[in-house]
Structures are given as C-alpha cells and as structure tokens.
C-alpha cells in the first residue's frame, strides 16, 4: 500500500498540500492592522455586553474598541480631564473685593469724647486683575490640552498592543492547525510502517522512530493549546473580561501594502508624540505670558463714603494704590521658560530623527518580509512538496530509508513554519509603522 502524506485518515479524501491550506484565518490586514483611536468614553458599551460568551466571535476592530472603552489607564486619563476643568475654573477666580469700615475721632477726651465728633468711613476696594485672570486661565487651558494628547498616545499604544497580541494568537492558531495535521500524518506513518513491519519490509527500529515522532508531534500540539489559552486570557484581560477561550476572525494571508517613505514622513510630523512637544512649547509660552502679566503692578482702587457725626454730613472718598518696585521680578522665570522652549524644540528634532530612522528600517523589513513570503510560497514549499511525494514513493518500494523520508517531512514542516514566521513579521512590522505614524483605522476588515 502506498502512503499518501496528504490523505485525510478520517474521510479518506486526498487534500491539497497544506502549504496553501493552513493559513485559513487571521486578521484583515489588506491595509494593515487598524489602530483605532476613538475618543475614550466611560459609558457602558453594547460591545462590552456582547462578549459574555467564551465562544463569541471577535474581530480586531471589536477587540480594539473594547480595550479603549474599558482599559483603566485610559479611564484615568478621561477622569483627569475633570481635574483640569476644575483647575481652569479656579484660575478664573480672582482676588475678592474688600469692604472696609474705619472709625476716627471717637471715644476720646474733650471734644472727641463719646461719638459726638466721630467720623466713619465705609470703603469698597478691588484689584484691576483681569489681565492676570486671563493669563492664568490660558495657562491652565494649555496644560489641560496635554491630557488630550496623552489620551491619543495611550490609545495608539494600547491599540498596537491589542493588534500585536491578536496577530500572535492567530499565528498560534495556524501553527496548531499545522501541527494537528502533522500529528495526523505521523499517525498514518506509524500505521503504514506497522503494515510494512508485519510484511517484513521494515524493521522495528523504524517503527520505534515513527512512534517517537508521533509523540513529539502530540507534545507540540499540547504546547500550542496551552499557549493559546494563556494568550486568549492575556488579550481579553485588556478589556477587563479575561477568558480562557476566544474566537478570533480575519485573514492573515492578506498582505499589507508597503507605503512610500515620503507619505509616512509626512504623517510623522502630525503624530501625537510630536504634538506633545508642540503643546509643551505652547504651555511654556502661556506661562511666559502669565509671568510677564504678573510682573506688572496690580492697581487697587478704593471708593467709599465718609460720615461726619458732628455735622451729620457725608462725603465721598476715593483712592488708588500702585505697587512700587522692580517690574522685572519675574525675569528669571521668563528666561527659564524661554530656555525650556529651546530644549523642547531640540528634543522634538531629535525625536523626529529617531522616528525617521525607525520608520525607514521598518519599511525595509516589510519589503524583506514580502520577499521571504513570496520566495517560500513560490520556490521552497512546492519543491519540498514534490520531494516529499517522490520520497514517499521511494520509501514505499524500499529505495529510501525512514530517516531520509522523515527528514524531508521535517523540512516541509519547517518551511511552513517559516512562512508563518514571515507573515507574523510582516503584520507586526506594519502595526509598528501604524503606531509610529499615528494612523487610525478602526475598521479595515
């Protein structure tokens, strides 16, 4: 009996070689893994309620949305907005006006005894501080805007984490399928050699080697099953609903296109990390303006009414107070803030150079991954499949040893795993490019 390594033992049907069958599911990455950054919300979402069953089918978009709606780090940033709103309200409150009452020439002696010569003055005083209030409010608003930028950065980072874990789980699922097929094939090899031993065409040594190979393949399947459970739990814990089993859907074989360097460099200038530096410089500018305003003297106006007890007359009183002293008392603070702006500008330039290099390297790695995938699919796997078919025929008629036949099967399995590695590298590289460039694609399926 001739052994066919691609024959399904359960239904007896010949199947297409597994190099073109095992990549059946994955994530939709025609344009890459989408890094969604919707505005975080504390409201309960219907999508959170949908993942109650351990068999709920989940795509990448849903996984990202669930994470961004419920991850505690984003919730903390959302809550921090209320803190800054309170700071802005407080900054808009100025010094309270003062009401004063002064009594003169009373409770003395002679003509000033008792209250007969008393003079009483009721005054109302206030500071001219609107410029200071506006400056404090503007400074508080500038600092509050930093929270929004932090939310965008955290959302991008979390989206990238979800997407990477999503890809890794799908890769493991494909490895599991591949190893389960290898187990089936190893069992068929054991059965085939058992018949050959019975017919006197093979030795017991070959039988023992085939049995050991079957045990190794079973162990590989068991290892992947444990890894998948752990990975599922780790992924679902990102949205606070850890589960041992999840159903993920997509297509790993859809290869993301390699974007041009020029288009990605343009996007780099608009990413939240660069916006963060721009915002910090804006905050420093607001603080400088506030320091200049606070260095100016605050005039205080006073107006009131004076009563003369002896004559029962009234008179108006008014006054102005102008602080006296050096108007450059905040010169050091202003100089420090100006220097901080220069530091931030230099740091922004350094970050751009670093991201530029990282982006170029990732684009080159994507191109290499494309080449590796095409080479393995077109040149390596078909050759090994043909070799395995020929080796199976040669082994069946006794022209090839079991070790030689087994080595060819291992080579094919290794090439198929290498193809999975290349797909994984390609998608992870594209995810990282999206994270670096701040791309927001919430639904690319």
From TrEMBL:
User: Which Pfam families does the annotation name?
Assistant: OEP
InterPro entries, from UniProt? MdtP/NodT-like, OMP_efflux
The record's similarity note reads:
Belongs to the outer membrane factor (OMF) (TC 1.B.17) family.
Q: What protein is this chain from? A: TolC family protein
The record lists the organism as Alteromonas oceani
| Record lineage | Bacteria, Pseudomonadati, Pseudomonadota, Gammaproteobacteria, Alteromonadales
